[in-house]
Amino acid sequence: MPLKILTVIGARPQFIKAATISRHIAHTDNMSEHIIHTGQHYDKNMSDIFFDELDIPTPNVNLEIGSGLHGEQTAKMLIGIEQEIIKQKPSCVLVYGDTNSTLAGALAAAKLNTPVCHIEAGLRSFNRRMPEEINRILTDHTSDTLFAPTKNAVIHLQKEGISSNNIVLSGDVMFDAAIYYSSKAETTSTIVEFHNLPKNDYILATVHRAENTDDRARLTRIIDELEILAQHTKVVMPIHPRTLKVLSDYNISTKNILFIEPTGYLDMIKLERSSKLIITDSGGIQKEAFFHKKLCITLRTETEWTELVDSGFNILFPPISENTKSLSDCVTNLTSTSKNVFSDTLYGDGHSAELILSEIRRRYC
User: Fold this and answer.
1) d(Cα 289, Cα 63) in Å, to the nearest integer?
2) E strand spans, the chain
């Protein structure tokens, strides 16, 4: 019996994860995919370029939702996704990660009694002030099959009462992507040379989370700390549109940080692999740093990727006024105390996509 998967995506990390799954679907008999792009990321450098360079099939539908308040955005997605599920009658609906697109896809499918498969299930930061945390929890408790990337994620789901029969330890499709696209990035990306960056001797920084960008004191602290680092080590920062806007609104200026345009995935891989250290508030980039054997400092009070902190490859820097430790001290401590022994087993074996599709076929064919 043919298996029809309806996939819901809408944000940069989901494009990368979906690329690994879609590539295998395209080469699997009796399996097809119908892709809905919610349009949550609508900037061309944050959307179209990923489809082009990762060879993701053109979405069958683009809802073009754009930005908005969480409730408004999710409600518009629900309407569009529900209509597509009714028309397509898929075997299951596949959602990724923890965005509003994730939650909308899961809710729309569950209301129509269509099985929901959640890739990257079981992550918890235990901070319910984060919209992503609410999306994770609700999606997990709405899903029929939960693909957990790590053992910690499995434990979180079990503690919340989700049946072990519904949980699959799959490994992380982002690790699949890092392995597959790294060689392509090395041969095609020229971003390091274009910006004349000293290989293995610059810091790559990214800031985009609302908890940092929408708080003037936090964002000022982050930029000030990065500016101090940039006096001695080159700091390059692909600038998220939201961050660029609030820097202007808050009249925050800098003279040493190198701001560059948002990058595609291959350029980002090249920047990560050629850097000395990564500083970020992104969940995905924390892992990418690890995949490329780079130490990382996370600009948050907590992380869903706790195994990276436990292993000593990542440390947290809460950018709050009560934190008297400097970012420079964190860099020194991390680089001097880390054993730089990177395990390849935390996130699977690089074949998570095949395992996930095999399990979906077994359950829903």
Assistant:
1) 32
2) 3-9, 31-37, 61-62, 92-96, 116-119, 145-148, 167-169, 202-206, 234-238, 258-260, 277-280, 296-298, 314-316
Q: CA 149 from chain center: how many Å?
A: 13
pLDDT in tens, 334-356: 888 766 556 667 899 999 999 99
Instruction: Choose, from 156, 208, 240, 292, the residue flagged as catalytic.
Output: 208
Sign of CA dihedral 319, 279, 97, 82: positive
Q: Is 37 a catalytic residue?
A: no
Q: Do 3-172+348-364 and 181-337 fold alike per CATH?
A: yes
Class of domain 3-172+348-364: alpha beta
Instruction: Give me the mean pLDDT over the 114-142 stretch.
Output: 96
| Cβ neighbours of 358 (radius 10 Å) | 15
Sheet holding 3-9, edge to edge: 61-62, 31-37, 3-9, 92-96, 116-119, 145-148, 167-169
Residue spans of the domains in the chain: they are: 3-172+348-364, 181-337
Give the tokens for residue 154: 């499995």
At 87, the pLDDT band (50, 70, 90 cuts) reads very high
3-state helix, strand, coil in the chain (%, to 5): 45, 15, 40
Q: In the prediction, which pLDDT does 345 show?
A: 78
Rounded Cα gap, residues 286 and 291, in angstroms? 9
- Distances in Å between the Cα of 351 and the Cα atoms of 327, 345, 348, 358 are 36, 12, 7, 11
Query: What confidence tens digit (pLDDT) does each residue in 219-276 have?
Result: 999 999 999 999 999 999 999 777 888 999 999 989 999 999 989 899 999 999 999 9
**Is CATH 3.30.1300.10 what the domain over 181-337 is classified as, yes or no?**
no
Measured CA to CA, the distance from residue 360 to residue 357 in angstroms comes to 5
Handedness of CA 39, 146, 287, 177 (dihedral sign): negative
Percent of the chain at pLDDT exceeding 90 = 77
Q: What is the pTM of this model?
A: 0.90
Q: What is the pLDDT of residue 8?
A: 97
pLDDT beyond 80 at 1: no
**Residue 302 and residue 127 in contact, taking contact as beta carbons nearer than 8 Å:** yes
